[in-house]
Structures are given as structure tokens and as C-alpha cells.
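In the laboratory, one determines a bound structure by crystallizing the protein with its ligand and collecting diffraction data. In a computational setting the workflow is compressed into a single prediction: the sequence and the ligand go in, and a structural description comes out. We illustrate the idea with 2-acetamido-2-deoxy-beta-D-glucopyranose.
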Amino acid sequence: MTSASAIRRGGLSSLLVFDRRLGSSYVLPFTLITLFSAILIFLLFVHMAINNLKSRTRTVAGHNLEATPWHPFNLDDRHLDASASRILRCSYLSCLRRSPPSKISQHSSPAPACPAFFRSIHRDLEPWRRSRISRSVLAEARKYAAMRVVILGGNRLYVDLYYSCVQSRAMFTVWGLLQLLRRYPGMVPDVDLFFDCMDRPAINRTEYDLAGTGKPPPPLFRYCTTKDHFDIPFPDWSFWGCYKIYAEGFAWSVSLKYIISCGSVSLIIDPQYEEFLSRGLIASENYLPINISNLCPSIMSAVDWGNNHPSMAEAIGIKGQQLMEDLSMDRVYDYMFHLIMEYSKLLDFKPAPPPSALEVCMNTVLCLADEKQRELLEKSSSSPSSTTACTLPTLEGYND
Ligand SMILES: *[C@@H]1O[C@H](CO)[C@@H](O)[C@H](O)[C@H]1NC(C)=O
Ligand SMILES: *[C@@H]1O[C@H](CO)[C@@H](O)[C@H](O)[C@H]1NC(C)=O
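The predicted complex, in C-alpha cell form:
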């Protein structure tokens, strides 16, 4: 208004004389509008970028992940808090302020011997003992895996997530690995491994036979295996979650360890699915086997036998309980430690996290957990061990 009347009063010459004043009075609102629009566009852009990042950020709680195609399940059960700021804060900011590395403890007491069945680590890794594991052999495991875990420097853990795991298995499994790093600070070797969190073993011994394919099978970790599979068994999530969350009987049931620890005689139906601890089970010594093709008569004869031999039945029950006592959490960490250590020796390349992997630390998991999960996670956190890991039995003398 002012500048417009100034032009009218002064004509062209004034316009030229006062062009600086005129210019600034016209440009100021124009500049403000431009600046405002630019800020608006910038904010819109940031908003879109944040939403885009949020919708691409996969988390151990299961955000932005589909169920495993080989075992579909209902994703609606997960009750995921979808707030963008929480997902981004937990995923990208929670490892920035890491707690100082725990002091490597003095290891005053001598290491105990591991339970004898830890030898099965050698058997489980046997397919790669001669060939070792190349990048390309490892990459084959990708199509069976829900996630990839890379550990570096004994204190950094990176996770690349491909599929959601049923319930909170991924969260508790990653938590277990983080606790292992805490328990043995700086001692866990660099490693790169693929993991499936569903029950059914996938690496069929017939199909991945070295003689047939000319190369070793893809190494894939999961909670159980069978004699017909090359899947590598790893302690399951419930050691950290410790609540009985999954016993649908689809393949293998997590409840075995709870049943055996009760001290009564366990009647175990053809333990076809082997989790890492079931290798310690010896028929008629710490449990009574039940023949699945002959179920009812088999159970009845076992019960009859128990009733007629009460002291022997009791001894079997006690031995089962001892097996579970041997298998304290210390031994569970030791099993993980030795399995990862022996596996890492087989890698013929230097592990590095893929570009799509994100670092996960204890804060990340706690940040993503709901209230109940956080309580369980905190209860199951470890502290540095005062001893080195138990001594792994050698391959020699291993005749299973
Ligand atoms: C493994 O594959 C072979 C050949 O395809 C098949 O006959 C066998 O049933 C499979 N075994 C298991 C345990 O799935
Ligand atoms: C289980 O029962 C079936 C049918 O009676 C029999 O053929 C088989 O040999 C039994 N298996 C064992 C391990 O006893």
C-alpha cells in the first residue's frame, strides 16, 4: 500500500531514485511468503521422510515385517505400538549412548567341564568342518532365515530382519545374544549367522547332501533339529522370556525342559525333534521313551513298569532333574558361547554387517518392549562371569 502510493506520487523517476526502498518494500512480503512456503515444504518433506523411514524400519518387536511364508501366523496378535517417534528413537538413537564395556573379570575360579552332551556342537557343525563356510555358502541360508545376526568386536551386535517371528521370539533371542556379550565381555568372536525362529527344520539332509550338490549345506540356526536335518540347534528364547508361550505341538514343544525339571519320571514320545538340551536325554536313564506308532500300549507299559519298579522310576526322575540342574543358565550361555566360537572358526571370511542391518543393543530391545516384556527382559539380564566358559569336550571320544 505505502509503496504503491509512493510510485503513484513520484512517477517513474522517483521509482528509479527510490528503487532500493521500493525494492525492499515489495520484496519483504514476497520473501516472507517464499520463506514460509519453503519452511512448509521442508516440514512436509521431513514429515514424509520420517513416515517413509518409519514404514521401512524393521524392529525386533516385529514392526514392518511379514510373517514367515513357510509358517504363516496371525500378525494381529502382536499389539505393536506404531508411533513413528518411538520406532525411530528406539531403532536409531538407543545405541548412541552405550554403557561403558563391563570390565573383563579376573576369572578367579577354574572353568568346570561342560556337560558331555555339549559334544553335539561338533556333530552339528560337522558338515562344514572340511569345506568351511564361504560367503556364498552362507548366503544360501538367507532364503530360510527370519534374521541375520552379525557380532563384531565382542561387543557390537547388528541385526538384519527379514520376517517377523511368532510372539516375541526375535526379541528374546536377540536379548539372549546381547546377554552373552555381557557375560563374556570382549570374548565372543566376530560372527555372521542366519537364524530362523520357527519350529520346523528346513535343511533336509537328503536334499543338501554334499555328494549330491557338490557343496556344503547352508548353515542355518534354529531352536531345534532332527537327525534328518542339518539345521543347527540353538538355545531357545524361553530361557530369557521364561514363560511358556508356545506349545501348539506343531513340531517341537518348548515345554520339555519344564516337564523334566519337575523330578517326576518323564515319558517322552519319540523325541524326533532335538533341541540342544535333548541330546542330554538318555532313554531309560533319565526318561522313559514312548513309541509314537504304538502310543497307548507304550504309555501303559511304561506306567506299569514304573509302578512295579518305584525306586528305579524315582532314580530316573532324579536323573532327569539333575540333567536340568546341570543345565543352569550358566551352561546355557556356555553352550551359546561354544557353538558361536566353533562356528566362527569355520567362517572363511571376515564378518561385516550388511548395509540394511541395524545395530541393536540392550537399550534398543528395552525401548521396543512392552511393559510385561521389559519386566522379563530386565529379570533375565546377565552380568560378567567370574569364570571362563566351561571346557568343551573334544571331538575325540565322541561316538553318537
Ligand atoms: C528330504 O527330502 C527327501 C527327498 O526330497 C524326501 O524324500 C524326504 O522325505 C525329506 N525329509 C524330510 C525329513 O523332510
Ligand atoms: C514302535 O512300534 C512299532 C509298531 O508296533 C514297531 O514296529 C516299532 O519297532 C517300534 N519302535 C521302537 C523303537 O520300539
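Residues 204, 206-207, 228 surround 2-acetamido-2-deoxy-beta-D-glucopyranose (ligand 1) (CB under 6 Å). Keep in mind that any predicted model is a hypothesis to be tested, not a measurement.
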